Amino acid sequence: MNSGRLPGTWSDTERGKVHMQDGKRSALVLISGGLDSTVACAMAREEYKLKIGLFFDYGQRALERERESAERIAEFFGMEFVEINLDWMKRYSSSIIVGGSGRSDDFPSSWVENRNGIFINVASSIAVEIGCEVVVVGFNREEAIDFPDNSAEYLDSVNEALKLGVSKPIFVVSPTLHLNKKEIVKRGIELGIPWESLWSCYEAGDRMCGHCDSCRRLKEAVSGTGAQDKVIFK
């Protein structure tokens, strides 16, 4: 163990989970209105006391629809809804999510540089100040192939950095970390998430477009399941 770590930081952990010994720890949940964060929230509720649902405005095209969904999901799970403005990210991003022209390298056109890192660091700062010990995120095995900041390796690295970056123990967990989209949908059905509240589309509109990468992943994941008729696309 690194002898330079702060006293009181986590020493014995598993990826995606903190062992409970003395009641439920309080958790801050990153919510986007999408499938992964909603199912992660539902799974986390079994182990942690959910305190705040944290939503970010980073200039995304689907901001209004995502916000509406995130607010409803926070209410469903009994969390306080808190929004943080990071719309400066749009100014410096080429991601199509924020209206950019896309990338010319090997990363997906929807990639936003260090988005998860920024979100997690902001969330961790808030968590320390309000007395939460856990930050819940919705990573998954399937998207980790294209988005390395969804991977188990990334989660491990984030938690190592937080041992030196905050003054009290904060651990980032992802209950969905080792699941693919189909498995996440299955867990969502089992846990009774509010399917009608989801917004997983990069676009704004009355209904999810059904064509963007995020919609295609969701459409494929719910196909043939009990959730198929509850998720409406154009």
Overview in brief:
The protein is α/β, with parallel strands linked by helices and 234 residues long.
Features:
disordered N terminus, alpha/beta, 234 residues, Rossmann fold
Structure characterization notes:
This protein has 234 residues and is of the alpha/beta class. It has a single domain, classed as HUPs (Rossmann fold). Helices cover 34% and strands 11% of the residues. The protein is built from 7 helices and 5 strands, in the order βαβαβααβαβαα. A 5-stranded parallel sheet has the order 3-2-1-4-5, sandwiched between helices. Helix 1 (35-44) packs across helix 6 (181-191) and helix 6 packs across helix 7. The model is unreliable at 1-22 (pLDDT under 50).
Shape: globular
End-to-end Cα distance, whole Å, is 52 Å
Content of β-strand: 5-15%
The CATH topology is what? Rossmann fold
Helical run tally: 7
- Report on the biggest sheet: 5 strands, parallel
Mean pLDDT reading: 90
CATH superfamily: HUPs
Domains counted in the coordinates: how many? 1
CATH architecture group name: 3-Layer(aba) Sandwich
Query: What is the alpha-carbon Rg in Å?
Result: 17 Å
Unreliable stretches covering 5 or more consecutive residues? 1-22
How does the helix and strand content classify structurally? alpha/beta
Strand order of the largest sheet: 3-2-1-4-5
CATH C-level name: Alpha Beta
Oligomer: single chain
